[in-house]
Amino acid sequence: MTPSFPSLRLRRTRVTAWSRALHRENILTPADLIWPVFVTGGTGVEEPIGSLPGVSRWSLDLIAKRAKEAVGLGIPCLALFPNTPADKRSDDGREALSRDNLMCRAIRAIRDACGSDIGILTDVALDPYTSHGQDGLVDGAGYVLNDATVEVLVGQALNQAAAGADIVAPSDMMDGRIGAIRQALEADGHHNVQIMSYAAKYASAFYGPFRDAVGSRGLLKGDKKGYQMDPANGEEALREVALDLAEGADSVMVKPGLPYLDIVRRVKERFEVPVFAYQVSGEYAMIEAAAAVGAGERDALVMETLMAFKRAGCSGVLTYHALLAARLLGR
Ligand code: PBG
In sequence order, what are the residues at sequence separation of 6 or more whose Cβ sits closer than 8 angstroms to the Cβ of residue 184? Predict the structure, then answer.
């Protein structure tokens, strides 16, 4: 049957590949990707992570190689996460302040290998360093103390900046940490170190494989609902973003990714600042699980989800599929 408005045929522009290309509203390039990598000790060590198939922890030498590979593919930034040895984890997470911790050594290894060809983003939070797996200091009742934690986070961020981090990314959700870190960076002469705030970070069930990767899952006592956001809330995310921007964040992040694209869109429209999303470990694992049982085709699932972030308004995406996506885009 002829449509009732025969002149309005939206399919007209979809008929051929050239026309679809011409009318495409959003593009994804390797420059949109931040690649999170897990660091472990030793040399020549690769440790696969069971709940994150295809992702491994790498020792410093291998991390440096991966960084070069990322540069070659046009990926502009790496996000580093350490698997701190068990004997260096403590109640107060003091290893986070050591100049020679895995994180600082990884920063230097990447810098030696790649110079300033790649950005290095570091996570500011204590969970890879504490014996209880929480992101901050806990009191006797297990409550994560805000202001005392912020003081340690400031030291951690300064330590990372001194080692050469380009972007510090506080993922802890303590109140006031962005302002405190910004002030300290300025006072210490790190005027050009960026802060990408995990501004709207939810208490999510999608972080499980990450906690395996940094070795905090078995250690974690309780949950993180006392500081990470309630998945039911949207307005509160806007308040978090407003505060972090006022306190000096250069860019903000929404995390997890796909289940929270509405938040990405609201933040972008309200604040008109660079917004990033973290397609987290559980999201990666779901795509891999779907591909493994033949429920979808991996490459197509990856590219479609990454494009969804662009469409929602993201400047870029942290994704464990960064290398794969960059390879597919480079074809
Ligand atoms: C730690 C941190 C987490 C992630 C990034 N930084 C886990 C958590 O908050 O428990 C999760 C990333 C992922 O799941 O891929 N502060």
Answer: 154, 157, 158
